[in-house]
Amino acid sequence: MRLARARSLAVVLCAALSTGCALLTPVKTDTTTYVLNGIPGDLPRQAAHPETMLVLLPEAAPLYATRRMAYSTQAFQIGYFNESEWALAPAQMIQPLLVETLRSTGYFSEIASSPQPGRHSLTLRTEILELKQDFSSEPAAFRVAMRFSLHRGPTRQLVGTKEVSVSETMRGKTAYAGVIAANLAMEKLLRAFAVFAIGNAN
């Protein structure tokens, strides 16, 4: 009788320990990360000029200052994907794209992304105003909007500002379809940005 009772207690104890271990084990979730790397490949080459440009890290509205990937299903609403996210915060991915786009034009003698006092004749400030997958429209679309401000000299005198907004149709209602559309949208936005930068650097 005592032996049977001891065995029963042992079984209950093992079960309790197993449950406890299961509760303490972290829940594993598979998260897929994506990048923004779309750069226009058809930018016309410009004659080289002595202008130098400092491209500052873009500022971002709080909704987009995160690796979380935003979407909306109705007006005035923002949600975030649970299993999909950006590899870096959007500003960190977009800054190198701005630099590479300017280099591709051949117009500027030097382009940098870290401040060097007194070295650059122009400074570029950018703001990310919108960066989301919009499922409230039919078909769904990726929407990106940025504001560019160009400043000259050590006093940072404003010489030009422009807001660019691009909407790119998505081929499906998935995070990955949104990423493909996002890179196509970035190519169009960067093309408009290059025209703005060169036009205001003269």
Question: What labels describe this entry?
Answer:
disordered N terminus; about 30% strand; alpha/beta; about 200 residues; Rossmann fold
CATH class: Alpha Beta
Write the CATH fold name: Rossmann fold
Give the CATH H-level superfamily: ABC-type transport auxiliary lipoprotein component
- The total of beta strands comes to 9
Q: Oligomeric state of the chains?
A: single chain
What is the number of domains? Answer: 1
What's the CATH architecture name? 3-Layer(aba) Sandwich
H/I helix tally: 3
Give the termini separation: 98 Å
**Low-pLDDT sequence parts:** 1-24
Average pLDDT reading = 87
Which strand-content bin applies to the residues?
25-35%
> Secondary-structure element sequence?
HEEEEEHEEEEH
Overall form: elongated
Structural class designation: alpha/beta
Biggest sheet architecture: 9 strands, mixed
| Cα Rg | 25 Å
Structure report:
This protein is an alpha/beta fold and 202 residues long. The chain has helices at residues 2-24, 90-105, 175-201, and strands spanning 32-34, 52-55, 59-60, 68-72, 79-86, 110-112, 122-134, 141-152, 157-169. Strands 1, 2, 3, 4, 5, 6, 7, 8 and 9 form a nine-stranded mixed beta sheet that branches. The chain is elongated, with a radius of gyration of 25 Å.
Write the layout of secondary structure elements.
Blueprint: H1 2-24, E1 32-34, E2 52-55, E3 59-60, E4 68-72, E5 79-86, H2 90-105, E6 110-112, E7 122-134, E8 141-152, E9 157-169, H3 175-201
Parallel strand pairs: 1-5, 2-6, 2-7, 3-7, 4-7
Antiparallel strand pairs: 4-5, 7-8, 8-9
